[in-house]
């Protein structure tokens, strides 16, 4: 089995699905945000505050290159912005089959309603503003997600297991 790379906006279910998929398939699970945070010795929010988004995006590319060089085989859950760089889209395809986990802004806002750790949504004064920010960012990211994806899976009103089953049928 090729590696499986999960992309999509934050809150689309990438980490939950990747963990379940890895457990079901007996494969290694790697969350790129968690790996970068560990390598930098600080949270993603702190990396953004201390060094800025361009630095973080560079770390994502460096991580993908090292995974490719190592011959990574497993389930990869990526950060929501990783597919924005064309170089990253190609590196992800080189690693395996890329699945875009797609969700509506309202679904994402609901899933992230109690999550305060997301730097790109920090400062939203209410749920409506958070949903609008998500919709605006999704509109900008959608072309990159579509370009990177080998398979698109709608995660709205789907359980983690239903999404895992769809991925396994498409792999």
Molecular structure report:
The protein starts with a strand and ends with a helix. It has a single domain (3-165), classed as P-loop containing nucleotide triphosphate hydrolases (Rossmann fold, 3-Layer(aba) Sandwich). It has a five-stranded parallel beta sheet with strand order 2-3-1-4-5, sandwiched between helices. The longest helix is centred in the C-terminal third of the chain and has 22 residues, at 127-148. The model has no long low-confidence stretch (mean pLDDT 90). It has 171 residues and is α/β, with parallel strands linked by helices. Helix 1 crosses helix 8, helix 2 crosses helix 4 and helix 3 crosses helix 4. It has eight helices and five strands; from the N terminus they run βαβαααβαβααβα.
Put the structure in a nutshell.
The chain has 171 residues and is of the alpha/beta class. 57% of the residues lie in helices and 14% in strands. It is globular.
Strand and helix layout:
Elements: E1 3-7, H1 14-25, E2 28-31, H2 32-40, H3 44-51, H4 53-70, E3 74-77, H5 86-95, E4 96-102, H6 105-111, H7 127-148, E5 151-154, H8 160-170
Parallel strand pairs: 1-3, 1-4, 2-3, 4-5
Helix pairs in contact: 1-8, 2-4, 3-4, 4-5, 6-7
CA-CA gap between termini: 8 Å
Q: Could you name the ranges where pLDDT drops below 50 across 5 or more consecutive residues?
A: none
Morphology: globular
The CATH class turns out to be Alpha Beta
Tell me what the CATH architecture is: 3-Layer(aba) Sandwich
- CATH superfamily annotation: P-loop containing nucleotide triphosphate hydrolases
On the 0 to 100 scale, the average pLDDT is: 90
Biggest sheet character = 5 strands, parallel
Rg on CA atoms, Å: 15 Å
Major sheet: order of its strands? 2-3-1-4-5
Number of domains: 1
What count of helical segments does DSSP give? 8
Task: State the secondary-structure class.
Answer: alpha/beta
Number of strands: 5
What's the CATH topology label?
Rossmann fold
